[in-house]
Amino acid sequence: MSRHASAVRARLLILGGGYVGIDAYRAVMRQLGRQVRRGQVEITVVNSTPYHTFHGFTGEVLGGVLPLERTLTPLRDLLPQARVIEATVTRAELPMQRVHVQDQAGRTSTLCYDHLLIGTGSRDPFERVPGLREHGWRLKDSRDMQAFRAHLAQRLADGQPTTLAVIGGGFAGVEMAAALRERLTRAGVPGEVHLLCSGGVLDCLQGRFGGLAAHARQALQRAGVQLHLGRRVTEIRAGEVRLEDGASLRVNEILYAAGIALSVLPGTEELPRDDAGRLLTDDFLRVQGQTRLWTGGDAARVRHPARAGDCPVNALWAMKHGMWAGHNMARSVQARSLKRFSYRGLGQVAGLGRGDGVGELFGVPLTGAAAWWLRLLFFVWYMPSKRQGARAFAEMLRPPRRRGTPASALQPTGG
Ligand SMILES: Cc1cc2nc3c(=O)[nH]c(=O)nc-3n(C[C@H](O)[C@H](O)[C@H](O)COP(=O)(O)OP(=O)(O)OC[C@H]3O[C@@H](n4cnc5c(N)ncnc54)[C@H](O)[C@@H]3O)c2cc1C
């Protein structure tokens, strides 16, 4: 319980130590830092792991350019004034303003709140793709990523020919395919990388930025990635990807990057959601119809403030949602009026291997080295730990090792 229970005026409970959770914490601290340090406001963050995972450099981690630990930062370093609880949230009792959590040892506890922020993100869509859970590598959880890295490193060290399939032609899939292709080449191991997409490469860039999508497609082809466009994957089996048209592809390893699914926290079933399960928000990042419930990021559907439709689902928007939700939560505690979410975006960028990329910044298209540098600087700037960012920057500029990089132990580095 609280160190200053009698003096506590507000208990802020943040579920999830991802982008939403961290930026919400920072926004609250900017406004209520003094009250938090005096024990008048309590911030508690619950996360299933003790560290934050930065997914932006997934391609570089797979490609052996960055160690996995570069993307993991202990939450206690990032949230020094918060009570950080490593546990899984199992149930909410919204009318009682409390949630139940369970730690890895099976111990349960109950946390009460005045304001609750749901920033628990998304999960892999197991039910959408039969066989994904059993035969596909997932990369959202750093423990899965570590297992894949170790497995791949072993294959390459043994010189085993390796055929890899990446499913998903969005930013994550494209970056992974490019990075893995580079890694096989560097390791001098015979092998193939296949990229399978139900649509085209980077369809999200079609229309105004169609030229960027075409650049990405050509760069992947030049690098030797085999493209299977307009081909939906219906099932994953051991060493085999099955496609909608009845064809199948024999491969050694299958990586999945084609979409997300949402889990509904028991006790929150009554909250308004869209068909995908995302919580609906008002213009202040509150869950619609609620005054003490906040959300953002992958878990939420937030209307874009400047154009028709919703905010994109990615880390930058999750950060901005978290920032706004935290800011408004703090203003609620101070009984001040709330600020309407008004962030308009910055751009988007994808890496296509060392020194190449595509992107746009405020609508200005970029390709090649300019896009690669933009992405590097952008990611380093937005990493939650500046020290990790500086290390990543230096490592990205270092010439890559020719043979496979040994898999390191899963150990987050101090922030
Ligand atoms: C492989 C991969 C690559 C990506 N690459 C990019 C990229 O290059 N650029 C980009 O912008 N975006 C990228 N994304 C997307 C980006 O990571 C997400 O949009 C972003 O993480 C969403 O932030 P969030 O805070 O909503 O969720 P998250 O960052 O996922 O944080 C949610 C947190 O909640 C915790 N949690 C969930 N359920 C519970 C529970 N019941 N109890 C306790 N804790 C719980 C999780 O452990 C997690 O730490 C990538 C995603 C993946 C998976």
Automatic annotation (TrEMBL):
List residues of the FAD/NAD(P)-binding domain.
87-302
What cofactor does this chain's UniProt record say it requires? FAD
Write down the top EC class of this protein: oxidoreductase
Q: Does the keyword DNA repair apply?
A: no
- Transmembrane portions of the chain: 362-382
> Which family is this protein grouped under?
Belongs to the NADH dehydrogenase family.
Q: What is this protein called?
A: NADH dehydrogenase
Q: Which organism is it from?
A: Deinococcus radiopugnans ATCC 19172
Q: What is the lineage of its organism?
A: Bacteria, Thermotogati, Deinococcota, Deinococci, Deinococcales
